[in-house]
């Protein structure tokens, strides 16, 4: 109990990238550049979708929600990480660590659910195009988005409670750059088997439930595409899903590797590399992928850059 109280009052210290020595300033410049591009790109996508009436469809509405969720996710992690790269080891209170874990886990789970909803949207668009407008109405879109955000928050809260009900040992140094579940769990005292199982179950529920919906959606989508009469029509139908499918592969690949593993397989260097990919690179890839592979987004972005949309706004 004394050890737990000591950790509560002292909080934690992020070691982050302290082992990189002088390379930390190079990492700071690199991550800052990537973060500014990520933040600008996601905000720009949200604004463009809001201003361009041609993009006021369920597909782009969900894309703007995903961009918003990604922006909130990075805001809770990257600014503190950048500060740590400049100042070295950085303190965070016990409550502050719990709050950061809650928000990072909540937004990460929300991203999973939003990707599943976007898969369902593509299923309706391709498999029932004549009924798309009536089925994917504004009311249903709001319900799907609201459920995604609410579910993400509940799972984030569950993961945080599973970790922070544990007693912590005298060591309070987190071998990471934010309060993620694996590194914080490694500091807990005693038998953490039940907590590990709890985190695994919650992670499985989020990842498998959302991925299963995506898999079912794309099974029907593929069957519908194969039934089309010409190759040109098949390519056109598949092109509407290519961006979403690419983001799903990147997102679920990183998330599965990070959270669907036993505690014994954690590795500081490897986990930090995957975490950097998930927190810095993936949020940057989303707007790039949707901008490069989607003609409607390309047109809207081009109009915005030329001043057509922003001038009218």
Automatic annotation (TrEMBL):
Residues 41-290 form the G-protein coupled receptors family 1 profile domain. Pfam families: 7tm_4. Gene3D superfamilies: Rhodopsin 7-helix transmembrane proteins (1.20.1070.10). Belongs to the G-protein coupled receptor 1 family. Its main location: membrane. One of its GO terms (molecular function) is G protein-coupled receptor activity. This is Olfactory receptor. It is found in: Cell membrane.
């Amino acid at each position: 109990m004394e050890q737990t109280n000591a950790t509560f009052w002292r909080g934690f210290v992020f070691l982050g990238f302290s082992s990189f020595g002088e390379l930390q300033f190079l990492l700071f410049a690199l991550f800052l550049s990537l973060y500014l591009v990520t933040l600008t790109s996601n905000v720009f996508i949200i604004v463009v979708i809001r201003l361009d009436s041609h993009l006021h469809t369920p597909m782009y509405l969900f894309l703007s929600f995903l961009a918003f969720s990604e922006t909130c996710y990075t805001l809770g992690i990257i600014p503190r990480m950048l500060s740590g790269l400049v100042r070295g080891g950085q303190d965070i209170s016990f409550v502050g660590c719990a709050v950061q874990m809650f928000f990072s886990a909540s937004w990460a789970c929300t991203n999973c659910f939003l990707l599943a909803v976007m898969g369902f949207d593509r299923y309706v668009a391709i498999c029932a195009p004549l009924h798309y407008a009536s089925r994917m109405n504004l009311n249903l879109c709001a319900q799907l988005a609201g459920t995604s955000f609410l579910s993400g928050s509940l799972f984030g809260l569950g993961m945080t409670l599973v970790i922070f009900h544990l007693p912590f040992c005298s060591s309070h140094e987190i071998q990471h750059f934010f309060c993620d579940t694996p590194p914080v769990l490694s500091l807990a005292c005693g038998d953490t088997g039940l907590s590990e199982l709890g985190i695994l179950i919650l992670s499985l529920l989020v990842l498998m439930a959302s991925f299963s919906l995506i898999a079912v959606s794309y099974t029907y989508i593929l069957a519908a595409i194969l039934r089309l009469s010409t190759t040109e029509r098949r390519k056109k139908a598949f092109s509407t899903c290519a961006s979403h499918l690419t983001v799903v592969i990147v997102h679920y690949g990183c998330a599965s590797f990070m959270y669907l593993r036993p505690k014994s397989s954690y590795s500081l260097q490897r986990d930090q590399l995957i975490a950097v990919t998930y927190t810095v690179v993936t949020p940057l890839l989303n707007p790039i992928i949707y901008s490069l592979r989607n003609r409607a987004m390309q047109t809207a972005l081009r109009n915005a850059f030329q001043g057509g949309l922003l001038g009218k706004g």
